[in-house]
Write a structure and sequence with these properties.
The protein is α+β, with helices and mostly antiparallel strands and 341 residues long. It folds into 2 domains: 181 residues, Glutamyl-tRNA Synthetase, domain 2 (Orthogonal Bundle); 140 residues, Beta Barrel (Ribosomal Protein L25, Chain P). 21% of the residues lie in helices and 25% in strands. The protein has a 7-stranded mixed β-sheet with strand order 1-14-15-16-12-13-2, covered by helices on one side. A hairpin with a 5-residue loop joins β8 and β9. The longest helix is centred in the first third of the chain and has 15 residues.
C-alpha cells in the first residue's frame, strides 16, 4: 500500500515521473506450505526433502514433477484473484483446481497399492478373459481398453474386513461385491498363515453376472418401463464395487504416495520452528500391482488409479522400472479429519 503514498509525494514536489505506472499486490501464501526461498533452502540443505524438485515442494519443478498441470495452476490463480493485503489461501482451493483438471484429462487405470490375493475357485484354471474398460468417462473420445481377467486376482487390503462394521459394502466373509468391469464374487473362505495374517481369500464368482455396458443400459431402460427387476438375472446388482488386477498379468510399480509437507495449516504460527511440524507421513513408498497397460505410461499423460488417486510418471522411471508419483487423492482426506475435530 506504499505505492499511492509514493505517487502523492512525487505529485506534491512536482518531480518528473519517468517510470510507468506500477501496480502491486500481495504475495500468494498457502496453508500447510512454506513459501520463503530461504526456508525452503533449509529443507533442501538439511536433506529433509530430496531436492528443489521434490514433489512436496511448492516450486515450479516440484509441482511439475508431482504431476500438476499448468492448466490447473492457471484455473487456481484465476479463481482466487489478487489482493493488495497479505492473506492466507487454503491449499484445499488449489487441490480442488487440480482435481477438477485431472478428472477431465486423466486416463483411468486399475492398480492395487496394498494387495491381498483372491482365488476364484469356480473359474477355470489357465483361462484368461479380456474385458472392456473405459479410459475416461468424462471424454468419450478416449475410447476403451482391454484388461485381462483370470482365476487369481489382487484386491486392496482395505476392501476386505473379516469382521465388518455396519454399512460396510465391500468384501466380507459370506458377502458379495462386484469386481469393476467383471463379475460379482462371494467370499467363501479366509486363508491365514501361521501368524494369523490373512494371505488369501477364496471366492466364487456368479459367472452369469459379467458386467457388460450394453446390458446395464438395457436394464435401466427396462426398469423405467417396469419390465424387469434389477435384482434378477444378468442385471443383478450388489451395493459394493471394488477394483482389482489379474495376478498373472500384473505389473509391479514403485508408487510414491505424497501428501502435505506440514501437519499444521500455519507452520510458523506463534513463532514456532516450521520444521517442528513436518508431516512424518508426507511420503510413503509402496510396491503396487498394476494392470499391464501401465507398462506404456507416458510422462506427458496423467492417470487415475480408479477409486484411489491421480498419478504421474516420475523421471526416475526406466525400462523395467515403473515409478509413479501420487499427484492428489480423489477426495480431500484432510477435510474429513478436520471435521472429526
Amino acid at each position: 500500500m506504499h505505492r499511492p503514498l509514493y505517487d502523492w509525494i512525487l505529485e506534491g514536489l512536482d518531480l518528473p515521473r519517468l517510470l510507468p505506472k506500477q501496480y502491486e499486490f500481495a504475495r500468494l501464501s498457502l496453508t500447510y506450505t512454506i513459501m520463503s526461498k530461504r526456508k525452503l533452502m533449509q529443507l533442501v540443505n538439511e536433506k529433509l526433502v530430496t531436492g528443489w524438485d521434490d514433489p512436496r515442494m511448492p516450486t515450479i519443478s516440484g509441482i511439475r514433477r508431482r504431476g500438476v498441470t499448468a492448466t490447473a495452476l492457471r484455473a487456481f490463480a484465476y479463481n482466487i484473484g489478487i489482493t493488495k493485503y497479505n492473506g492466507l489461501t487454503d491449499v484445499a482451493v488449489l487441490e480442488h483446481a487440480i482435481r477438477e483438471d485431472l478428472n477431465k484429462r486423466a486416463l483411468r487405470r486399475l492398480a492395487v497399492l496394498r494387495p491381498i490375493k483372491v482365488v476364484i475357485t469356480n473359474y477355470p484354471e489357465g483361462k484368461t478373459e479380456e474385458l472392456d474398460a473405459v479410459n475416461n468417462p468424462e471424454d468419450e473420445s478416449a475410447g476403451k481398453r482391454k484388461i485381462p481377467f483370470s482365476r487369481e486376482l489382487f484386491i486392496e487390503q482395505d476392501d476386505f474386513k473379516e469382521v465388518a462394521v455396519p454399512k460396510y459394502f465391500r468384501l466380507k466373509p459370506g458377502g458379495e461385491v462386484r469386481l469393476k468391469y467383471a463379475y460379482i464374487i462371494k467370499c467363501d473362505e479366509v486363508v491365514k498363515d501361521a501368524a494369523g495374517k490373512i494371505v488369501e481369500l477364496r471366492c466364487t464368482a456368479d459367472l452369469d453376472s459379467k458386467f457388460v455396458a450394453a446390458d446395464v443400459n438395457r436394464r435401466k431402460e427396462l426398469e423405467v418401463r417396469g419390465l424387469t427387476s434389477a435384482a434378477t438375472g444378468p442385471f443383478r446388482k450388489v451395493k459394493g464395487t471394488i477394483h482389482w488386477v489379474s495376478a498373472a498379468h500384473a505389473v509391479d510399480a514403485e508408487v510414491r504416495l505424497y501428501d502435505r509437507l506440514f501437519t499444521e495449516a500455519e507452520p510458523e504460527k506463534d513463532g514456532r520452528d516450521f520444521k517442528s511440524v513436518l508431516n512424518p507421513h508426507s511420503l510413503e513408498v509402496v510396491t503396487a500391482k498394476c494392470e499391464p497397460s501401465l507398462k506404456d505410461a507416458k510422462p506427458e499423460l496423467r492417470y487415475q488409479f480408479e477409486r484411489l488417486a491421480y498419478f504421474a510418471l516420475d523421471k526416475d522411471s526406466a525400462p523395467g522400472k515403473l515409478v509413479l508419483n501420487r499427484t492428489i487423492t480423489l477426495k480431500d482426506a484432510w477435510a474429513k479429519e478436520a471435521q472429526k475435530g
